[in-house]
Amino acid sequence: MDASFSSTIFIYGLAFILGVGKACTLLIWRTLPKPRPGLRQEAGAAWRRRTQRMSPEKPPDHPLGGPDSHPSTLPPAPQDGLSRP
Q: Mean pLDDT across the stretch 46-57?
């Protein structure tokens, strides 16, 4: 290095070039298409979709109907005479 060339300017120049290069790299990587999942994950997801489609439908967790059919509004079930005190 020559005495007329400041080492501080050299260091700041390198930092600037590295920063601009890093920003460009990140911009390029962000614009690239996202990778697809692996073949194993894709096949497993397809298998789950297929088995869910072929399985019989489960009954709903709650009864269908209006507010009168809600279990809390129904009359109590008849007792069989074996109530506990």
A: 80
Kindly list the distances between the CA atom of residue 82 and the CA atoms of 34, 63, 64, 76, 85, in Å, as whole numbers in the listed order.
67, 29, 32, 15, 10
In 3D, which of 56, 36, 32 has the Cα closest to residue 46?
Answer: 36
The model's pTM is 0.38
Measured distance CA(75)–CA(69) in Å, rounded: 10
Angle subtended at Cα 76 by Cα 71 and Cα 80, rounded to the nearest 5 degrees: 130
What letter would DSSP give residue 4? Answer: T
Please state, in angstroms and as integers, the Cα–Cα distance from residue 33 to each residue in 26, 30, 66, following that order.
13, 8, 50
Buried b (16+ CB within 10 A) or exposed e, 28-53: eeeeeeeeeeeeeeeeeeeeeeeeee
